[in-house]
Amino acid sequence: MQALGDPTRLAVLEELRRGPRAVGEIAEGLPVSRPAVSQHLRVLKEAGLVTERRNGTRRIYRVDPRGLEELRTYFDSFWTDALDAFKEAAERDDKEEQ
Amino acid sequence: MTQPATAETPDQAVRKSITVEASREKAFEVFTTGMSRWWPLDTHHIGRSEPTEVVVEPRVGGRWFERAEDGSECEWGRVREYESPARLVFAWHLGPGWKYDPDPAMATEVEVLFIEEGPARTRVELEHRGFEVHGDRAEELRLPISQEGGWSGLLERFAESAQS
Predict the structure, then answer these.
(1) Cβ contact (<8 Å) for A82 and B39?
(2) So where are chain A's domains?
(3) Quick one: DSSP state of residue A60?
(4) Which of A28, A38, A45, B65 is the most buried (most CB within 10 A)?
(5) In this model, does residue B17 exceed pLDDT 80?
(6) What per-residue confidence (pLDDT) applies to B81?
(7) pLDDT, position A5
(8) pLDDT of residue B133 exceeding 70
(9) What pLDDT shows up at residue A43?
């Protein structure tokens, strides 16, 4: 989820969660330049979080609706990390008591 | 999991298993009342202020919530089953956009089994199921609450704490 490791990039994604938008429309709602928004969109697209479609001369961006499979992947990753941390905590605790 | 998946959710549940070098009682305790010691609270919380602890009330119907330094609490879900030290079931009430949704029909479910493999060895099996209640909006659930570092940051911090 490195693609979300930037506050502005997350803000761009938040904008798209309200509905499909063109670059200019996204930039209007944020304190960043249009080229900066384009750059963030490129990273989000590469990360598979956002899709792009042409509408005449405009490019419209939207959140990639991959739904359940994405959600599964997210929680799979979350629980892997969380359970590793849990294991470490439980083993540290058990040793201290022995 | 040792239990079969329900008919409606044959393939969509997330299943994890980990072996812990600790007694079953200890593993259960750390998972529940000791959750603050391992939950990645800095990246996974829902309140505006940074929470200091995550609380699991140790009983059926108990609340599962985060508490901040100023005493404010944000609920995550409920304890559905509490069979110390063998089994736990949580209702996870965080809906799309990581907003708390009190409707039980919209909750996903987390079941955790603690299986004794020795006096100081426990296998922990976890199943998180029921994502389909969120249908088309499911993808929104996966966005981390805090943007600080995201997943890669979490892994790095875990690696640091494991080595210290």
Answers:
(1) yes
(2) 2-63, 66-98
(3) E
(4) B65
(5) yes
(6) 97
(7) 58
(8) no
(9) 83
Contact B75, B91 (CB under 8 A): no
Which CATH topology does A2-63 take? Arc Repressor Mutant, subunit A (1.10.10)
**DSSP category for residue B106:** G
Tally of domains in chain B: 1
Q: What is the pTM of this model?
A: 0.62
Closest CA to A37 of A57, A19, A15: A15
B124/A contact by beta carbon, under 8 A = yes
- pLDDT-above-70 percentage for chain B: 70
> Does position B21 have pLDDT exceeding 90, yes or no?
yes
In terms of phi and psi (left: phi > 0; alpha: psi -120 to 50; beta: otherwise), the region of B162 is alpha
Residue corresponding to tokens 């704490």: B161
Distance of CA B47 to CAs A4, B15, B65, Å?
19, 28, 10
Residues of A in contact with B23 (CB under 8 A): 94
DSSP secondary-structure letter at B139? G
Q: Inspect the interface and report whether the beta carbons of B39 and A13 lie closer than 8 Å.
A: no
Contact A83, B18 (CB under 8 A): yes
Structure tokens at A14: 């938040």
Q: Does residue B4 fall inside a structural domain? A: no
Q: For A2-17, what is each residue's pLDDT tens digit?
A: 555 567 777 787 777 6
B53 assigned to some structural domain: yes
> In CATH, what number is assigned to the domain containing residue B87?
3.30.530.20
SS (H, E, C) B71-90: CCEEEEEEEEEEECCCEEEE
Interchain CB distance below 8 Å, A74 and B23: no
